[in-house]
Amino acid sequence: MKLGTILVVGAGFAGATYARALADHGWHVDVVDRRPHIAGNAFDEVDETGVRRHVYGPHIFHTNNARVMAWVRRFATFVPYEHRVSAMLPDGRRTVPLPINRTTINTVFGLDLQTTVEVRGFLDRQAVPHPSPSNAAEYLQAQIGPELTDLFFWTYTKKMWGRPLEELDASVVARIPLRLDDESRYFPDDRYQGLPSDGYTGLVGRVLDHPGISVSTSTPFQRELLSQYAFCFNSMAIDEFFDFAYGPLAYRSLRFHHRAEPSSYAFAPTALTNFTNNSIYTRQTDWSLLPGHLLRDTGAKTITLEEPCDDFDNGMERYYPVPASDGSQALLYARYKALADREPRLRFIGRCGAYRYLNMDQVINQSLAGARAWLSGARQ
Amino acid sequence: MKLGTILVVGAGFAGATYARALADHGWHVDVVDRRPHIAGNAFDEVDETGVRRHVYGPHIFHTNNARVMAWVRRFATFVPYEHRVSAMLPDGRRTVPLPINRTTINTVFGLDLQTTVEVRGFLDRQAVPHPSPSNAAEYLQAQIGPELTDLFFWTYTKKMWGRPLEELDASVVARIPLRLDDESRYFPDDRYQGLPSDGYTGLVGRVLDHPGISVSTSTPFQRELLSQYAFCFNSMAIDEFFDFAYGPLAYRSLRFHHRAEPSSYAFAPTALTNFTNNSIYTRQTDWSLLPGHLLRDTGAKTITLEEPCDDFDNGMERYYPVPASDGSQALLYARYKALADREPRLRFIGRCGAYRYLNMDQVINQSLAGARAWLSGARQ
Q: Are A55 and B36 in contact (CB under 8 A)?
């Protein structure tokens, strides 16, 4: 037993935040990560075309939590950035703002709606009432009607989740707002938005840079480790920890397809473009349009397309818990959670531990709170 | 079937070289890699302390092959670097050159041997004759005697390979030379030595930067792909491809343990230091001592220790084929190779395909030759 030492499994935002919070209070922390790098799915690198690429897909930092923002600012300066997303219409030529706003509606329907009242009225005529929508399809029908649902959600969702809207919980689409005006920012309500100036890897590296923290990469968790530590905060997948005793929790993963384009390439006015068409790709990222992400002018830049998938047998990473409308996954998670609660010196943390889609700021906030609660208990 | 398109599995040196050689001859090539990045085990990144870190352990480029050097120079400029390695003696204070040279011997035995004849004579008195050494232990006994064998090879080899010298083929140690003079360079016979100035990721990225090449990361090989392509060059592990039908080939892997030290930290005069002691670590790398690997002065630098292991069930990467002295692994490989030879439109390439330790220049050379041979056959 390493007295006074805590094991943290995973060097992503959850693990790094716990490690730092504990180390700042005098604990020694050993952090292990099975991957060869830190920063989890936020890991980024500068590629040969000079773009900073988030290797597990684009990560945008945004929060309303001043405490979280103050905390991450200890470890990075941020380049201001207001995130916007386009949708490429099926004609492959016109892009419109996403989430759906007045411009989107006017472009799609060839209208010239001027006021929020007009937009509201138009959508009300489109909508098909569902007094209590039981899945994502019904929710959307009731909000925006069949035409917009089909155009922006039906095909995209099928690609993204590998299942139709009817089989997904309304919460999947309920978090995507609807704008009656021309607001085109993705996170207009978040006071703090930006990208860490030397990347998420730099940020997380400094979070972990503390004399009390040791970091090991390419180091998978092994159950034998548990007996050697006072406590373990574990961000690995909870079902994997229990050897999939009740079967695997459903996740969605991503494959990334890259191509080099000339620096002058312009596909859409935004870094991210969603595809409404029938291809295998959900969206593409032009990294050069994220501030500080075209670092050297090499004459070229990388464009990355995302193809959702779920071949976890092949060692792919878990990205998104699948919000099944039948509640099956929530139930399965509850069974694993009950097993976990019987482990006296172990707590599951982060997105894979909670089996919930969490933004980076939520992960940091929960981790700071979790560490604080644990520390106050540990001190008694 | 994608007519005229070739599938390459793996975006490391083998796959990237094949892809480029084929694309330069007009073929379309789809490259897939299950990892989220290109460059295979040569992948590097700049971390938060400003050091360039090779995330799967240090890679030094060295070759005598002018053709290979001319080829890689199309894709990178090289910073000159002559590699040297130290061994930390068990006292934890003194370092000596590796491979063993006159300085090493004088330091270890407290001698003052001046000429190569004196060194030769000393070693001859140390040596225990073995007319035809059948394993690494006997080979070393016959070359340098028990004391140097124990000090530099016994413990290190046990850590490195997880088995005693007796169970390893003489070839493991036969490739480590013995110097009777003060030569301390690791590769004194290689005319070209250096490190790519913006890293191996940059180099491999430019190898793959060709309009005929598409690259997909986080994309594991799937057998169904084979029927879609004219031919497949595959650098995945040959036993894994055949679902371990005859059992797994033995490999050794590495865990990496990192710590931050002040920029002024000086452990040994060389970037790499091997440990002769009984710890779990074989060696450590001070990245800042590789030229162009301390890129920003942040006041700190990362030191990385290596711990060999072989927990492949946990998804670790295969690094080193185990050269078992009983020939069991060579035999097992031959059985897989026989299966592979029956696949008409598939060829295994690279280190995992050949189940042989290969330097980067060897991989490139074999890949260029293999692509050329295939192209001349394909054209008939």
A: yes
**Exposure of A131 in the CB half-sphere (CA atoms within 13 A):** 0
Contact A144, A127 (CB under 8 A): yes
Chain B residues in contact with A45 (beta carbon < 8 A): 37, 45, 201
Low-confidence ranges of chain A (pLDDT < 50): 380
pLDDT of B4: 80
Distances from the Cα of B173 to the Cα of B130, B156, B273, angstroms: 15, 12, 18
CA distances from B221 to A160, A313, B32, B66, B198 (A): 21, 11, 7, 34, 29
How many other C-beta atoms are found inside a 10 Å radius of the C-beta of residue A320?
17
Q: What pLDDT, on the 0 to 100 scale, is given for residue B380?
A: 45
Share of chain B above pLDDT 90, in %: 89
CB contact under 8 A, B314 and A220: yes
pTM (predicted TM-score): 0.90
- CA end-to-end span of chain B, whole Å? 21
Using the structure block, give the residue that is written with the tokens 């330097």: B359
- Choose among A203, A256, A249: nearest CA to A57: A256
- What percentage of chain A's residues is helix, strand, coil (to nearest 5)? 35, 25, 40
Which tokens in the block code for residue B56? 């799967």
pLDDT of residue A380: 45
CA distance A259 to B29: 12
Q: Which residues of A144-159 are buried (b: 16+ CB within 10 A; e: fewer)?
A: bbeebbebbbbbbbbb
Query: Residue B178, exposed/middle/buried by CB under 10 A (0-12, 13-18, 19+)?
Result: middle
Q: What is the pLDDT of residue B186?
A: 95
Which chain B residues have any C-beta within 8 angstroms of a chain A C-beta? 34, 36-37, 43, 45-49, 55-56, 198, 201-206, 209, 214-222, 253-260, 300, 307, 311, 314-317
| Rg of chain A taking only CA atoms, in angstroms | 22
What is residue A194's three-state secondary structure?
strand
Give me the total of CB pairs closer than 8 Å, taking one residue from chain A and one from chain B. Answer: 119
User: How far apart, in Å, do the first and last CA atoms of chain A sit?
Assistant: 21
Is the ipTM reported for this complex over the cut 0.95? no
Q: Which two tokens stand for residue A91?
A: 């004609």
Residue closest to A30 by CA, chosen among A4, A57, A54: A4
Give pLDDT tens digits for B73-121: 999 999 999 999 999 999 999 999 999 999 999 999 999 999 999 999 9
CA distance B61 to B17: 15
For residue B342, give Cα distances in angstroms to B14, B336, B352.
22, 10, 18
> What are the residue ranges in chain B where pLDDT is below 70?
1-3, 378-380
